């Protein structure tokens, strides 16, 4: 990050603050998130040219430090196309046609794993991690860890989870960013997030990242209820009252997110009622392309661009 870049980022932060003064709520929450992220990302961004291990994974978003682009509001979303553009694409039907993953890019690659509570997201994520080198970030697990850590937000998060409500985006996005920044790989399975349109917009604004695709586990409520009641993990929300509230929230708030990505041709719908093994077989073709070519070439190219100054956007 050059000093001109820093000056530019500060200017943009100022203009976001001015928007906030004019009561633009999205700009206001973005500005808060961005300020936090500046603090998170800044110490690492000094190592831009000193090798991949020292570069924050998120520094690579859009070929530059994420907080810089977030501050600049230059969210030119990824042009990566994954699979067919037709909506409501069933994974079974599409088979190998999922293959258009941009493995020459060095930016972090994100897959959102969505579906109702108990549809089997966590179960399948574990299998994908074992076989395809992704990092699994469960937003619910991150929130539960935050409660355990004794964070000042702990009580609020606990109450929201008990009541089946969606925790404010500021909290969840910050936890996700921190986990992404600490990760040693750039392939992320983000499980159980975004849960509503506000979550989605907050993540997009702050990271500038668009998911490669959305894995949507389609499962009837009766099956999900049965699975949740048998989960036996001692969770405060796996009781019939909270389960019913979670279903309502899923239908009212989360389905519109799945629909949004559907319209962009990014939703990969999977029949989640099959056995664990059958579901995994169905989704595997979606992940094979990620193994086909290392992203090192793209990464090296990005580092060279930084060396020559051509990737600096001020
Ligand atoms: N395909 C499946 N068939 C039957 N039970 C399943 C299947 N997938 C997951 N389960 C079980 O259902 C429960 C909920 O699964 P989980 O992966 O935790 O769902 P989610 O992460 O979507 O809430 C767990 O007890 C899990 O072992
Ligand atoms: O992005 C998220 C993810 C989870 N939660 C909260 O955490 C609970 C449990 O979510 P998780 O994904 O762990 O459980 P699932 O819905 O898959 O059973 C949800 O009901 C919400 O209260 C949230 O607020 N935002």
Please give a structural write-up.
By secondary structure, the chain is an alpha/beta fold. It folds into two domains: about 90 residues, no CATH class; about 200 residues, Rossmann fold (3-Layer(aba) Sandwich). Helix content is about 55%, strand content about 10%. The chain contains 14 helices and six strands. A six-stranded parallel β-sheet has the order 1-6-5-2-4-3, with helices on both faces. The radius of gyration is 20 Å and the shape is globular. The termini are close together. The N terminus and C terminus are likely disordered. Uridine-5'-diphosphate binds next to helix 6 and helix 7.
Unreliable segments of 5+ consecutive residues: 1-55, 62-88, 92-102, 294-314
| Count of DSSP-assigned helices | 14
Q: Which small-molecule species are bound to the chains here?
A: adenosine-5'-diphosphate, uridine-5'-diphosphate
CATH architectural designation of the largest domain: 3-Layer(aba) Sandwich
CATH class of the largest domain: Alpha Beta
Oligomer: single chain
Structural class: alpha/beta
Biggest sheet character: 6 strands, parallel
CATH T-level fold name of the largest domain:
Rossmann fold
Order of helices and strands: HHHEHEHEHHHEHEHHEHHH
Mean pLDDT: 73
Q: Order of strands in the sheet with the most strands?
A: 1-6-5-2-4-3
Number of domains: 2
What's the total number of strands?
A: 6
Rg from alpha-carbon coordinates: 20 Å
Task: Compile the SSE list and pairings.
Layout: H1 3-21, H2 25-41, H3 66-72, E1 89-90, H4 91-94, E2 109-115, H5 121-132, E3 135-138, H6 139-148, H7 154-162, H8 169-182, E4 187-191, H9 197-207, E5 213-218, H10 221-229, H11 240-263, E6 267-271, H12 276-287, H13 289-292, H14 296-308
Parallel strand pairs: 1-6, 2-4, 2-5, 3-4, 5-6
Helix pairs in contact: 1-2, 1-3, 2-3, 2-8, 5-12, 6-7, 6-8, 8-9, 10-11
Uridine-5'-diphosphate binds at residues 117-118, 121, 138-140, 143, 160-161, 164-167, 172, 192-193, 195, 237, 246.
Biased composition (Basic and acidic residues): 89-100
GO molecular function: ATP binding; CMP kinase activity; dCMP kinase activity; UMP kinase activity
Keywords: ATP-binding, Cytoplasm, Kinase, Nucleotide-binding, Nucleus, Pyrimidine biosynthesis, Transferase
């Amino acid at each position: 990050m050059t000093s001109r870049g820093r000056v530019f980022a500060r200017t943009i932060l100022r203009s976001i603050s001015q928007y906030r003064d004019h009561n633009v709520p999205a700009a206001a929450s973005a500005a808060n998130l961005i300020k936090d992220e500046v603090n998170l990302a800044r110490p690492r961004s000094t190592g831009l040219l000193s090798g991949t291990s020292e570069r924050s994974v998120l520094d690579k978003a859009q070929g530059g430090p994420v907080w810089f682009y977030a501050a600049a509001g230059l969210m030119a979303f990824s042009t990566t196309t994954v699979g067919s553009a037709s909506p409501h694409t069933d994974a079974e039907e599409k088979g190998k046609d999922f293959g258009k993953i941009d493995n020459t890019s060095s930016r972090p690659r994100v897959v959102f794993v969505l579906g109702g509570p108990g549809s089997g997201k966590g179960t399948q994520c574990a299998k994908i991690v074992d076989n395809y080198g992704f990092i699994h970030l469960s937003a619910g697990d991150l929130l539960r860890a935050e409660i355990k850590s004794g964070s000042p937000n702990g009580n609020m998060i606990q109450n929201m989870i008990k009541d089946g409500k969606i925790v404010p985006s500021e909290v969840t996005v910050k936890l996700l960013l921190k986990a992404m920044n600490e990760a040693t790989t750039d392939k992320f399975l983000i499980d159980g997030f975004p849960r509503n349109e506000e979550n989605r917009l907050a993540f997009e604004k702050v990271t500038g990242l668009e998911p490669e695709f959305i894995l949507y586990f389609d499962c009837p409520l009766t099956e999900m209820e049965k699975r949740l009641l048998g989960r036996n993990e001692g969770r405060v929300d796996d009781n019939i009252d909270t389960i019913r509230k979670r279903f309502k929230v899923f239908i009212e708030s989360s389905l519109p997110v799945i629909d949004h990505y559907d319209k962009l041709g990014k939703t990969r719908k999977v029949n989640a009622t099959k056995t664990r093994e059958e579901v995994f077989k169905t989704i595997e073709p979606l992940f094979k392309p990620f193994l086909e070519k290392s992203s090192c070439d793209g990464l090296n190219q990005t580092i060279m661009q930084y060396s020559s100054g051509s990737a600096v956007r001020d």
